[in-house]
Q: What sequence folds into this?
């Protein structure tokens, strides 16, 4: 049995790792000259988003034997709307992981675990590979190939501007800003990478390329983020859901399979899960669609909430942040293992009634 993997990001590398453990040969094709993204940034793995798993990294290790070393734990989350602020504290609210080209990045951690050959600077044709390999796994990070194979529904389009800032940061504290002035129904966030370095990112929904620079500077000015930026990047992100995830001998995983979280746009855990399920399905002849249903069910819960967020106003953000700051709500959300995602609609409706 021989497998081709298109894409050397998190999902593609995870798939290769599991296939090798199962004794299946694979080749990886990457259109760039390196693994992962060309820019560095911090990503959050928040415990509240991944329930019922109390610890997403421990879940990956216990369920899939995939060990990822984070930069640090999240112990404080500061959420700001235009008029309100709430602070959440806890010993383990989640993790900060490095993404991109740094040695400690998730991509580099995974690459060190595999023996598969990575063929760089090759824009692989999945149709041709499907003729010469038993299976092809698409892990390209976008829905371009999926759109040629099945029905794809675009949920949200965003333009992202970010950078690495130098300053004095609390290593365990992350910031989240909600303001339609510069993010529309998106958000801004700050993730410390060390005591003197942080990743600052603006995710602005439904934004044109010519708009993002002005929105970025408005964000930095409005939130008084007067740091020295040593590098910046700009990219676009379309979050979609796909009707099918296996078409003949072709498997769609990660963002290529529509497994990205449509609420915050994070997708590390879903990328890992879909990669593992594809490898297991290939090796054991299992039903891939059935295995990934647990992921699509989570994504579907957030699709309706994302559509509701697209019509939100700043006064709505103010009410939501105020409600989240209520001691009773805090206790229920962060001191229990309640699946908060299931009740996001209810939270928004309650805040709207209080206007």
A:
């Amino acid at each position: 049995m021989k497998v081709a993997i298109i894409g050397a990001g998190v999902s593609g590398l995870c798939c290769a790792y599991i296939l090798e453990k199962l004794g299946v040969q694979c080749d990886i094709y990457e259109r760039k000259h390196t693994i992962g993204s060309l820019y560095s940034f911090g990503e959050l793995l928040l415990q509240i988003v991944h329930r019922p798993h109390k610890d997403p990294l421990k879940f990956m290790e216990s369920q899939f034997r995939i060990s990822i070393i984070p930069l640090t734990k999240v112990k404080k989350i500061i959420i700001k709307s235009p008029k309100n602020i709430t602070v959440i504290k806890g010993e383990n609210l989640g993790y900060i992981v490095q993404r991109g080209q740094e040695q400690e990045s998730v991509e580099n951690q995974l690459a060190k675990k595999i023996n598969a050959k990575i063929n760089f600077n090759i824009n692989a044709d999945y149709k041709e590979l499907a003729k010469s390999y038993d299976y092809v796994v698409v892990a390209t990070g976008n829905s371009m190939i999926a759109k040629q194979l099945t029905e794809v529904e675009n949920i949200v389009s965003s333009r992202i501007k970010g950078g690495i800032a130098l300053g004095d940061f609390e290593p365990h504290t992350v910031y989240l800003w909600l303001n339609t002035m510069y993010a529309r129904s998106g958000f801004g966030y700050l993730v410390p990478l060390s005591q003197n370095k942080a990743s600052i990112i603006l995710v602005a929904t439904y934004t044109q390329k010519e708009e993002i620079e002005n929105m970025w500077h408005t964000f930095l000015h409005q939130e008084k983020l007067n740091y020295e930026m040593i590098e910046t990047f700009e990219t676009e992100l379309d979050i979609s859901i796909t009707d099918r995830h296996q078409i003949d001998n072709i498997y769609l995983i990660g963002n290529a399979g529509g497994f990205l979280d449509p609420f915050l746009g994070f997708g590390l855990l879903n990328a890992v899960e879909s990669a593992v399920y594809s490898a297991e399905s290939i090796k054991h002849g299992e039903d891939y669609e059935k295995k990934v249903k647990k992921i699509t069910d989570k994504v579907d819960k957030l699709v309706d909430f994302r559509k509701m967020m697209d019509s939100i106003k700043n006064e709505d953000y103010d009410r939501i942040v105020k409600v989240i700051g209520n001691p009773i709500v805090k206790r229920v959300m962060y001191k229990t293992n309640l699946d908060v995602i299931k009740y996001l609609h209810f939270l928004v409706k309650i805040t709207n009634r209080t206007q």
User: Anything to note?
Assistant: The radius of gyration is 20 Å. The chain has twelve helices and 14 strands.
